[in-house]
Automatic annotation (TrEMBL), chain B:
Function summary: Iron-sulfur subunit of the cytochrome bc1 complex, an essential component of the respiratory electron transport chain required for ATP synthesis. The bc1 complex catalyzes the oxidation of menaquinol and the reduction of cytochrome c in the respiratory chain. The bc1 complex operates through a Q-cycle mechanism that couples electron transfer to generation of the proton gradient that drives ATP synthesis.
Molecular function terms from GO: 2 iron, 2 sulfur cluster binding; metal ion binding; monooxygenase activity; oxidoreductase activity, acting on paired donors, with incorporation or reduction of molecular oxygen
One GO CC term on file: plasma membrane
Membrane topology field: Multi-pass membrane protein
Keywords: 2Fe-2S, Cell membrane, Disulfide bond, Electron transport, Iron, Iron-sulfur, Membrane, Metal-binding, Oxidoreductase, Respiratory chain, Transmembrane, Transmembrane helix, Transport
UniProt-listed CDD domains: Rieske (cd03467)
UniProt-recorded name of the protein: Cytochrome bc1 complex Rieske iron-sulfur subunit
Residues of the Rieske domain: 278-344
Native species: Micromonospora sediminimaris
Membrane-traversing stretches: 61-84, 96-118, 163-188
Entry annotated with the keyword Metal-binding: yes
Subcellular location: Cell membrane
SUPFAM superfamilies xref list: ISP domain
Length: 539, 361
């Protein structure tokens, strides 16, 4: 064999050794590669928010190359004929340019907007998942707080973002925002004057919103998201109860390659869906709204969906004005309560909830196992109650559209919202509580008496009874304890029936999977698989 | 697949000698995992090598990746050659953005599903168990760290030399204020400067009464509005029809005879007698609730609706709020007709226009 001067095959090994000699990374790297993550579809909701945020950063940077955050008055002279010759702000004109005169600018704008909506939606759904499964309990209260803050910072990011084009719709939103600031007792007019540099609209608000939207708020978001993920990493993810799963371990897959591959693939899917939405579904067609003019508004002026609940609360608020007869008299306008006080209360409740619940239950232990919503009826009830409250407010934010489309009186919609906001949440609590108890009872019933087989037996005396398949090995009843996870309730979950035939063009035959916790293979190795190998043949 | 059970260390037992040449790579991987307190308890190939199932999966994944290449190429071709510039009408440029979206979306979904299929179907299934080590922090460690930090305070001797701490605090507090001062001082702006919250573009200038003009700047004669009709008017000053006078847009309404009668009566009661001119009345268009233009005027009921939050104002009764969240009536602009027969504002609004605020008189 000829001796080579330079052995190519040894390069990676040598490089790795050289790096490790200097930085000692081998052990931490192995820990990282090996870190175990539990897997369940509901753990991916937060990821959607993260991935949308990455898309937001990418598309957002593109948009800054073309957007001019100025309120200088210009005469539009771009491609969009209907608005040519119209005086408008430079911000609005450059938004039109992005939409019509920058090649591929419109899809970037629309992807950015869709990604923002998806970001907020994913945050909310992720938050519901965390709430209903009790994942916020000790030791994860900090991450719950950061998550709640992320919603509100995202809210600000969204509002400052869609105000930037300075179109007819967003300008109206901005005017309402100025009215909200103005309604704050004592300091309201000073706050508004400071933000707008004088009277609304002034000439500087778009520039200020721009720097907030592209630097300050994203910086804050990046910081919060980093800590959020860091804590998930440090504290390790929660997991559903199941065979082999305890409060002290994590059962799942190692991070590399399986978990990382799933993450990467999922990112691409989220990105792809946003691209499809950005291309196919029109959003915020600012050229139809025209530039912002203080005297123009149209019916059905709705903000982005995550702002609609505040719009709704504002619409439902009665005209309760508080006057304070001191000196010349002072006023607290009705606008103050639904737009400043209500969000304040919501923030406080969401931030404090983990501590309030721990105090209420006198439960100060660490919890790494999730709870099924049915097993904690009061929390599930509270969650559904809050959700009902939120949904009524959001629907009320569009009550003029509903009234119009369904031919209902607008005033009736408002009154329905006012009454519904007070009556429906408690009702939702009660109904949810009862449903949870019913589900619990049915779980216990199946554990005690077995699964319904669908086989009817006729007894000698003529009665018909359904045969039940007990879940325990013995013939006895009530031997099984509820373990906090899915109880099989159908015979084919027990492997008693043939599996459904899979395959699109021709059947794919696979053995039925044993009943497992959602989405997981059983932990106990089957006897014939005792020998663990990589599948490679070796001598 | 020979058995090497004898050489495997049990968890917590002796570590495996990784230099043993008989070990497979997987044995080393598993040993590494073990040293991180991870037990790989289940590891099973999902497809047997060389089977039809494997080949089919490989074809699927490869198909996804090739689809990505195809879609991405299509994206580039469309991006470069498709006519994209805006043309009025139903030109091909209307398809530009949808086509970009579809090709980009398919390209990204292709790579996404390809990777996912690879990871979920072709890779062996695995279940690993990692110890959390939670609550394993020995109380001793906590104590040592605590003592270390307490000792830092001892070293500094703040307790013995309280003057140092107090003076440091006294020195740093103003520094904090210095950091905040430029921001607060720069942003702050007196909201009552030039009485800006109380005046609009209709304030008379140099004793000259301001005309009411249309959006195109033309002044208005009474005959321009038919009974029951209304028009948005602006102060006839430079830039009067612009956002610089965002609080000035006003609704000029020609009331029908009996409505005007009721309206005049109610005006007298509120001390607004003489604000109307004939059957014409002018009310601020800026909603007193949140500042939207209250612009939906219903002729039959003489109600003005704000489309933002559905406040409704009864025009014949001083624009009193009759429904919704608004608590204050729309301010009325006193109007008359000048010598040339055009509408002018007799004076500015007599109360502040727009959303309510704390110190509103």
């Amino acid at each position: 064999m000829k001796r080579r001067k330079f052995d190519v095959a040894a390069v990676p090994g040598n490089t790795a050794r050289a790096v490790d000699d200097r930085f000692q990374v081998a052990t931490p790297l192995r820990r990282l590669l090996n870190k175990v993550f539990p897997d369940h579809w509901s753990f991916l909701l937060g990821e959607i928010a993260l991935f949308s945020f990455i898309v937001l950063l990418l598309t957002g940077v593109f948009l800054t190359f073309f957007f001019e955050p100025a309120m200088t008055e210009v005469i539009y002279n771009g491609s969009y004929a209907p608005l040519r010759g119209t005086p408008m702000s430079a911000a609005y004109a450059s938004t039109l340019d992005i939409s019509f005169d920058v090649r591929g600018g419109l899809i970037m704008r629309q992807m950015h907007h869709w990604a923002a909506l998806l970001f907020m939606a994913a945050i909310v759904v992720h938050m519901l998942r965390v709430f209903f499964t009790g994942a916020f309990r000790k030791p994860r209260e900090t991450n719950w707080i950061i998550g709640s803050l992320l919603f509100w910072v995202g809210f600000l990011a969204g509002f400052t973002g869609y105000s930037l084009p300075d179109d007819g719709l967003s300008g109206t939103g901005l005017r309402i925002a100025s009215a909200i600031m103005l309604s704050i007792p004592v300091i309201g007019s000073w706050v508004t004057a400071a933000v707008f540099n004088g009277e609304f609209p002034g000439t500087i608000i778009i520039s200020r919103f721009f720097i907030a939207h592209v630097l300050l708020i994203p910086g804050l978001l990046v910081a919060l998201i980093t800590v959020h993920l860091g804590l998930v990493f440090k504290q390790k993810h929660t997991q559903w109860p199941g065979p082999g799963r305890t409060n002290g371990n994590v059962v799942g897959e190692r991070m590399f390659p399986r978990y990382a591959i799933k993450q990467g693939g999922f990112f691409m899917v989220v990105f792809g869906v946003i691209a499809l939405m950005g291309g196919l579904f029109q959003i915020n067609p600012v050229w139809l709204f025209g530039p912002y003019e203080a005297w123009v508004v149209s019916a059905a002026s709705q903000p982005d969906w995550y702002v609609m609940f505040l719009d709704g609360s504002t619409r439902l608020m009665p005209d309760w004005e508080i006057t304070i007869p001191i000196g010349e008299g002072y006023v607290i306008p009705p606008l103050f309560w639904p737009t400043v006080v209500l969000p304040g209360i919501l923030v406080a409740i969401s931030l404090l909830y983990p501590f309030m619940e721990a105090r209420h239950l006198k439960d100060y232990r660490s919890h790494n196992l999730l709870q099924r919503p049915r097993d904690v009826p009061f929390r599930t009830g509270l969650g559904v109650m809050a959700l009902t409250f939120y949904v009524i407010l959001t629907l009320s934010g569009a009550n003029d559209v509903i009234a119009d489309k369904f031919h209902i009186s607008l005033n009736a919609m408002t009154w329905a919202g006012r009454v519904g906001l007070l009556l429906l949440p408690p009702l939702a609590y009660y109904v949810t509580y009862r449903i949870c108890l019913g589900l619990q009872q049915h779980d216990r019933e199946v554990l005690a008496h077995g699964v319904e087989t669908g086989i009817i037996r006729r007894l000698p005396d003529g009665r018909f009874v359904e045969v039940h398949q007990p879940l325990s090995a013995g013939n006895g009843h009530g031997e099984l304890d509820y373990a906090g996870w899915v109880v099989p309730k159908k015979m084919n979950r027990l492997g008693a029936l043939g599996p459904a035939i899979r395959g699109f063009f021709y059947p794919i035959e696979r053995p039925a999977e044993a009943p497992v916790s959602p989405g997981h293979p059983p932990v106990e190795p089957r006897p014939e698989r005792e020998e663990i190998t990589s599948g490679e043949t070796r001598s | 697949m020979s058995s090497q059970t004898g050489q495997r260390a049990l968890p917590g037992g002796e570590p495996l000698d990784v230099n043993d040449p008989r070990l497979s790579r997987f044995d080393i991987v598993r040993e590494g995992a073990r040293r991180d307190d991870i037990e790989i308890v289940h590891y099973e190939p999902q497809v047997a090598p060389g089977t039809k199932a494997e080949r089919r999966l490989v074809r699927t994944v490869a198909g996804f990746f090739l689809l990505t290449g195809l879609a991405a190429t299509a994206f580039l071709a469309i991006y470069i050659w498709w006519p994209w510039e805006y043309e009025p009408g139903r030109g091909g440029d209307k398809l530009y953005t949808p086509l970009l979206g579809v090709t980009l979306g398919v390209a990204l979904l292709g790579i996404g599903f390809g990777i996912l299929t690879w990871g979920k179907k072709l890779l062996p299934k695995e279940v690993s168990i990692q110890d959390r080590h939670e609550g394993a922090v020995p109380a001793e460690d906590q104590r040592i760290t605590g003592e270390t930090m307490a000792y830092m305070a001892d070293e500094l001797g703040v307790k013995r030399r309280p003057l140092l701490g107090v003076s440091l605090l006294a020195g740093l507090l103003p520094v904090g204020a210095v950091a905040a001062a430029p921001l607060v001082g720069g942003l702050i702006s007196d909201p009552h400067k030039d009485d800006q919250m109380m005046t609009t573009g209709f304030a008379p200038r140099d004793g000259q009464k301001i005309r009411l003009v249309r959006e195109d700047g033309r002044p208005i004669r009474p005959a321009d509005i038919s009974a029951g009709g209304q028009i948005t008017v602006f102060p006839g000053v430079e830039h009067g029809v612009s956002n610089r006078y965002a609080d000035s847009p006003t609704l000029l309404i020609h009331l029908r005879e009996d409505d005007a009668e009721a309206s005049r009566r109610n005006n007298e009661r509120e001390g607004h007698g003489g604000y109307m001119w004939g059957n014409y009345a002018a009310y601020s268009k800026i909603c007193t609730h949140a500042g939207c233009p209250a612009s939906l005027y219903e002729q039959q009921t003489n109600r003005l609706l704000c489309p933002c939050h559905q406040s409704q104002f009864l025009i014949t009764d001083n624009a009193k709020p009759v429904f919704g969240p608004a608590s204050r009536r729309l301010p009325q602009l006193p109007i008359e007709v000048d010598a040339e027969g055009y509408f002018v504002a007799t004076s500015d609004y007599t109360e502040p226009v727009g959303p309510d605020f704390w110190e509103r008189p």
